[in-house]
Amino acid sequence: MSATTAAEARPNAMAGAVKDAAITALVALGLFIPIVGLRTDVSPSGTLMLRQRWGDVAILVGIAFAGRLAMLAWRAFRGEAKPASAARTEAIRKAGKSVAPVLLALAVVLPFIPGTGRYELDLGILVLTYVMLGWGLNIVVGLAGLLDLGYVAFYAVGAYSYALLATTFGLSFWVCLPLAGILAAFWGILLGFPVLRLRGDYLAIVTLAFGEIIRVVLINWASLTGGPNGITGIPRPSFFGLTFSAGGGPGSFADFFGIEPSPTHRVVFLYYLILALALLTNWISIRLRRQPLGRAWEALREDEIACRALGINVTTTKLTAFALGAMFAGFAGSFFATRQGFISPESFTFIESAIILAIVVLGGMGSQIGIALAALVMIGGFEVFRDLDEWRMLVFGGAMVLIMVVRPRGLVGHRTPSVALREKRSIGAEHVAEGHG
Amino acid sequence: MSAPMLAIEGAWTRYGAVEALRDVSIEVGQREIVTLVGANGAGKSTLLMTICGAPQAQKGRVLFEGRDITRMPTHEIMRLGLAQVPEGRRVFPRMSVMENLLMGAQVAGHDPKPLLDQVFALFPRLEERQAQRGGTLSGGEQQMLAIGRAMMSKPRLLLLDEPSLGLAPLIVRQIFSAIRDLNEKEGLTVLLVEQNANQALRLAHRGYVLVNGRITLRGSGQELLAMPEVRDAYLGGGH
Predict the structure, then answer these.
(1) Radius of gyration of chain A, Cα coordinates, nearest whole angstrom
(2) ipTM score of complex
């Protein structure tokens, strides 16, 4: 391009950018007037009153305008987006290889890091629960490609299974854990049968309804589930028969090992329990991916008709994906019940399914490490920004949008082939058009 | 003559109220290449799918090596020793070429190593691209992959649905010559469905013409090529 045309193009580009930013500001104005501009408060006399905050709206609209302008300027400065070079992909892949062991080591030693208190451990337990749920849902969504919006139903089945079995029959956690998994898997198959012929959005609607049905049944079947009041007094897990009572005493964990009784013991124990359960989920997923069943799941995600043409039994392949995904949710659910000691239908709303699905999608569907990172960012980040109060959801939403803009295929978007006969090579996202697969 | 590899006897197939196949009878002998030609919507693909049991024939029978497979579930039929290359190739786009090929071997459960060597000998391009994703291959390479994937189950009968679809003439010649090789060297029986009647009939020992769900003509490939009806309808007049 010659110098004159470049000079002519510049004012045009400037005007275009300002116009673009103005439109962005207009959209922001439309959004923030109802969201931020008008606020209902309780007046001193006890009635509702409308408070107007036009100053805040102006600041936000200004930020949107300036932000959009800065983004356009950065784009123009950087020029056309270059695809990542092969060397860079390779470097990222090498770095990625060390991320998993580092994270794992960190997770294992976390309770012994000085400064780790009750709060950090509880947060760790929460994050690991979502990591496990993400890995479980990944079997259904990431590997088999079956969009499930009602995954929390199986989490609920697992939690209620343990709670009811333990409070009614006095069964221990270790007996109930596999039972809860089996029951959840059974419900997974039950859901799987009617939706065998559905895919994509149709499947999503049915699974969404299934999740709601389970929750509504839990609320209304009060004689069994306690209805909205939930179930209280769920027994805590024991460590090979040793209890974690705060006061110590005979038969307790502290007494047996001759250490000072401390309420932290149970938290540490719960932490390692969920870590072990999550790692079990991970290990089984990774193993299965290399087995014929796992490969059939991935093939099913890619092309169902081709699967049929190759003689794959599509019915059993789908049902095993639903069953296994549900089983891990069931494990996680019974862990949730034993950790909380109290469960109610409120813990199993649609937003939980949405968060778990968001973790899987943001992590990069099918990537184990990506899902762990996404869970850490989403759940951990949500806690870190607790001080922001009502702005927290805004940060949360903004972070999700940002991840999808910067990494449209998820945090870890490449898929490592599960087999290699001669030479192993992973293929970066740049070789595949966006929107495929 | 020994029993035919595949026989369809008076098959009727319908989608809802629409009759796609009406009283169709064809035979495919051992080590034969049989071509089925017909216009769009004549029922060619339906005939192949009926063999695979999806959809099943409402009336009539499908016999594979003398065994009635009319009412068998699709995944069981595909384990008997026949393989299908579906219309539009349908390779698994995010899986590597190697993974695609191994998917073909999975159900039959033969040792994949010698089969891989055989496929790579037939299509050296696939060996070069074994680590590449299926979706990134060219159309011709995807067709090679689809055929190679089907061959990984060591079939005795190969069903091919429009392998020339959307491919350059040079590539079509390569694909067809590979099919001929498989037939002559490996003794593979082939049922080929094609719109590209000229080349397909040249390749075939025998052929059938399907019009509106009925078989209207049959004969050897050369006979059909010479028939004026075939020339007018499928070969663009004085070809």
Answers:
(1) 25
(2) 0.89
